[in-house]
Amino acid sequence: AQSIYDTIGLFDVTGELQRYLKSDVKVDEEKRERLKRLSERTALMDEDEYKEYTVARTYSFCAGHGVRKAKIGRFLKWLGSPEIAPNALVVLNYMACEMICCIVEGALWSRREEGKNHFVDIYPFKALQPRHYEESLRKNKAYMIGGNILVGSYQC
């Protein structure tokens, strides 16, 4: 167990994950907050938007209907074609999805804040733009410290 804890320390640049693992209280405030934002966002969607969102939310880099091997191959190629055990691949898939979630959540926050400033743009308001993703990375707590987005959170 200690070796796993030490390994987590290699990518946990903020120390949040290690503090969480050592704490006795296992209330995941980040998860609770994410579920609250998810509920608020989906409440504003119409049926077609919700269907599209549901499909996107269940995406996996390593699984699919009849295309599992192709997706795994592309994912491993993107990683640099390392030799990876199947269980480790599941963990890497989870980590990749979490990183994307962190970036997109931050981009959504950025777009919402931009709307308050009455930013005028030629693009439709609903579309996320590269500047939203750049702002998401800029305000990501872990990215600010060490360039690691895996265990970061967006700073409002």
Protein described:
With 156 residues, the protein is mainly alpha-helical. The chain is globular, with a radius of gyration of 18 Å. It has eight helices and no strands. 11% of the residues are buried. The protein has a single domain (2-146), classed as Histone, subunit A (Orthogonal Bundle), CATH 1.10.20.10. The longest helix is centred in the middle third of the chain and has 31 residues, at 86-116.
Structure characteristics:
156 residues, mainly alpha, Histone, subunit A, 8 helices, 65% helix, globular
Determine the number of helices (DSSP H or I, runs of at least 4 residues): 8
N-end to C-end Cα span: 35 Å
Q: Based on helices, strands and strand pairing, what is the structural class?
A: mainly alpha
| CATH fold-level topology | Histone, subunit A
Query: Count of DSSP E strands?
Result: 0
Shape: globular
Please mark out the parts with pLDDT under 50 across 5 or more consecutive residues, or reply none. none
Q: Strand-residue fraction?
A: under 5%
What's the assembly state of these chains? single chain
SSE pattern, N- to C-terminal = HHHHHHHH
Radius of gyration, in angstroms, nearest whole number: 18 Å
Number of domains: 1
The helix content, as a percent range, equals: 55-70%
Specify the CATH architecture: Orthogonal Bundle
Mean pLDDT across all amino acids: 76
> Largest beta sheet, briefly?
none
The CATH class label is Mainly Alpha
CATH homologous superfamily placement:
Histone, subunit A
What can be said about this structure in brief?
With 156 residues, this protein is mostly helical. It contains 8 helices and no strands. Helix 6 (86-116) packs across helix 7 (130-138).
